[in-house]
Specification:
The chain is of the alpha/beta class and 312 residues long. It folds into two domains: 77 residues, Phosphatidylinositol 3-kinase Catalytic Subunit, Chain A, domain 1 (Ubiquitin-like (UB roll), Roll); 202 residues, HAD superfamily/HAD-like (Rossmann fold). Helices cover 24% and strands 17% of the residues. It has nine helices and eleven strands. Strands 7-6-5-10-11 form a five-stranded parallel beta sheet, with helices on one face. Helix 5 packs parallel to helix 9. The longest helix has 13 residues. It is globular, with a radius of gyration of 21 Å.
């Protein structure tokens, strides 16, 4: 008699779905059918990250007992419903120069100096533990990068994460590594950061190294009069822990400007990378940013630069 696998948790599109009732003799195909009933993502559209045998994704005939999945295991899924995929097949509009995001006014930027928010940063400096992957190098500037829509289209469907990778990603990181230590900061959990970086081949690349990852726990909440409570990425958390970096030698790339509202002079908002299958041959954002990073290395103080005009 087959034992039950126990509840599994599928994390997809910002939500978690509990899959119950599976037994050890059920197959990967049975699991995908159960996921389909919960999410309406067809089995053939599902990419279940973390299910591997000897480094490879299991065939659909493989029994769940072979995978040795523990109850309450969280499995990240990539995939798109058919109705959403139909929208993607429409001819893409030209990406506008102005991205749909909070229009942060100049008088709101003063929140970077508010004592209550600076106190939150001090608490993160004290309590947040950074796991160093590769030691910082003496004399290197700091480049902080977002993941979703910056390096990776996390909404489109694909067989492998590499298919959703932004063009020139590895060339960009290899070139940046010559002058900058690189930190990845995503508004997600550490598990998902590691999964995405492994899937994109970033964590194991031989030509560059990532210094460390920061997740949502390193962010703080701030209140703005116009938009209410928002979560942001204060670079002061890094600067408080590593004195060799500051506003003078740090730059952050993100597709959402509000993420660096506490460091407005240090952030550079880039165009989001969406609809990877249709924009893969058109998107050259990282290639141009690679040249920009090299150009500004001669500057002694990044804080005097206006990154809004980076393309000029």
């Amino acid at each position: 008699m087959s034992g039950e696998v126990g509840d599994l948790i599928i994390k997809w599109s910002g939500q978690e779905y509990v899959i119950s009732g599976l037994v050890e003799t059920d197959t990967v195909a049975d699991l995908k059918d159960a996921v389909f009933k919960k999410t309406n993502v067809l089995p053939e559209r599902q990419k279940l990250l973390g299910l591997k045998i000897k480094g490879k994704l299991p065939d659909k005939e493989i029994q769940l007992s072979t995978l040795q999945i523990k109850p309450k295991t969280k499995i990240m899924m990539m995939g798109t419903r058919e109705e959403e995929l139909a929208k993607v097949t429409e001819p893409p509009a030209v990406m506008p120069d102005v991205i749909n995001d909070f229009d942060i006014e100049e008088d709101e930027i003063a929140i970077e100096n508010r004592e209550e928010f600076l106190a939150k940063i001090e608490k993160r400096i004290k309590d947040y533990e950074i796991k160093i992957l590769n030691e910082p190098r003496e004399g290197k500037r700091l480049l902080v990068l977002d993941i979703d829509y910056t390096l990776f289209d996390h909404r489109s469907v694909a067989e492998t994460p590499a298919e959703l990778m932004r063009p020139y990603l590895h060339d960009f990181l290899k070139a940046a590594y010559l002058y900058y230590d690189i930190v990845i900061w995503s508004a997600t959990g550490m598990k998902w950061i590691e999964t995405k970086m492994n899937g994109l081949g970033v964590s194991s690349h031989k030509d560059y190294k990532i210094c460390f990852y920061l997740d949502s726990d390193a962010m703080i909440s701030v209140h703005t009069p116009k938009y209410g409570l928002i979560d942001v990425k204060p670079l002061g958390v890094i600067w408080g822990k590593y004195k060799q970096w500051s506003a003078a030698n740090t730059i952050m790339f993100d597709d959402i400007r509000r993420n660096f509202i506490m460091n407005p002079q240090t952030g550079l908002r880039i165009r989001p990378f969406r609809k990877a299958h249709f924009n893969r041959d058109k998107d050259s954002e990282l290639l141009k940013l690679m040249w920009y990073l090299e150009d500004i290395t001669c500057e002694k103080d990044f804080s005097v630069l206006n990154h809004k005009d980076w393309e000029k």
